[in-house]
Amino acid sequence: MVDADTATAYLALGSNLEDPPRQIRRAIQAIRRLPGTRVVADSGLYSSKPLVPPSGAIAQADYYNAVVVVKTSLDPYDLLARLQQIETDQGRVRTRHWGPRTIDLDMLMFDDLCLDDPRLTLPHPGIAQREFVLYPLHRIDDSLEIPGRGMLSELIRNCSENGLQYLGAIESDEA
After folding, report:
1. Residue 33: active-site member
2. Domains in the chain, ordered, with CATH?
3. pTM of the shown model
């Protein structure tokens, strides 16, 4: 049980290497093990096309994505550090920006906190343009307001699905 002075954080998960659905499940299990943290909702699993960086497309497989909502007593910087440790534990190597990865964990929102510093920007700077974030968020809470960006229902109206596909519930997995 999480105590009364907890925050709600929305986390995006993505993978396109080494059995991506399993990578997503392993990451969710690791998030469940974080101190003072519990997963209260998930979006189910999606597949999406890779983002195209400003420098041009990078040849890579499609992604599997999900969003989870957690209640946590961790502060946003501690949560970020622990998410980055999960990425490392699952073999994430940061060799190419926007490139393929075993797991990518992004903090989308942390309560209604707005931050813009070298370590953490909240809400996530790409949140309003990414179909693989907006549509899973909408599946969880269609009345959500994104701090400083507006209502999710309005943002989603202005964001193409761009080949995004809902694949169904996230099956449990032993990490």
Report:
1. no
2. 7-168 (3.30.70.560)
3. 0.93
